[in-house]
Amino acid sequence: MEFKSKIKTIEWVDTYSKMVDQTVIPYEYKFVNITGGQEMFDAIRNMIVRGAPAIGIAGAHGVVLFAQEGADKPRNEFIPWLLEKAEYMKTSRPTAVNLMWAVDRQIEVIKNSDSDVKGIIEELKENAIKLENQDIEINKKIGDYGAEVVPKGATILTHCNAGALATVGYGTALGVVRSAYAKDNTIQVFADETRPRQQGARITTFELAMDGIPVTLITDGMCSYFMKKGMIDMVVVGADRIAANGDTANKIGTYTVAIAAKYHNIPFYVAAPLSTIDISIKTGEEIPIEERSHDEVTHINGKRICAEGVRIINPGFDVTPHELISGIITEKGILRPDYNKTIRAVYE
């Protein structure tokens, strides 16, 4: 039985990008229409859209939006101008490599097209929609491969949100949950709150509740407590960038969960499309880590929670070393250690 998620996070409609505004979940579930290139850049930067695969599609849409804005330019001016805008779009979030991957797919269209300006714009639209549709199919394959390693009646811990709302639809880590739940409705989820932006509390629990999958919310510091009590059977998280050796960048706090899982002999899996693997970097030491606004730490719902003048450091991501990862679940199957060999084999 195939699980039907009710959520589609982002899609191209006529001349604009329609997406769920994730900054207002769970208080509201509403869509916004992004009609300009700079507006899309800001939507990515300000996390109206978030989650590596969804950010990638947003970036592809953003190139189309910029292209539409330059439709009146002569072709010889349009192409270099648009290539510059595409490179700019890639700077909206530095860690999630899916953004660079998807924008590069659009750059290939621009460079390889023999069409006039209008034709290039149409080709970019078609490619953006193609990438959008592929994302859902890829996630379903990830889900099905991942479901094979989920024990019957398992409680799965996840960190941050790697669900339908982090992708076009279905999800990576939560895609594994959805596919497993379709086979065994005794599956349940423990969701880390995920400070400082509470994506686990606000978004993961929201979409699992919407789909009727049992979920329990815990704070970030509780995971080892429940692991010791035998209440967690496995961990599945998403990823924003994976190095050639398997080192994985994901939302800050993931590394802590992985250490706790290793200590308690609990399998720790990463679920991500191959587009999240960056074979150009050898280890996680080379992954750029985004430093985000201090307000995310000092304020909750617009209200300060600490004293004025307190120093803040707010990295958005951390890197989990490959030796803590039991497997990387992709659309081509589950990659196992030695990751240098198994990741390289996928690309040969």
Structure in words:
With 348 residues, the protein is an alpha/beta fold. It folds into 2 domains: 10-139, translation initiation factor eif-2b, domain 1 (Four Helix Bundle (Hemerythrin (Met), subunit A)), CATH 1.20.120.420; 144-346, Translation initiation factor eif-2b, domain 2 (Rossmann fold, 3-Layer(aba) Sandwich). The chain is built from 11 helices and 16 strands. The strands form 4 sheets. A 7-stranded mixed beta sheet has the order 6-5-4-7-10-15-16. Strands 11-8-9-14 form a 4-stranded mixed beta sheet, with helices on one face. β15 (327-330) and β16 (333-335) form a beta hairpin. α2 (52-69) runs parallel beside α4, α2 runs antiparallel to α5 and α5 (117-147) packs across α6. The longest helix has 31 residues, at 117-147.
Keywords:
348 residues; alpha/beta; Rossmann fold; 2 domains; 7-stranded mixed sheet; 4-stranded mixed sheet; globular
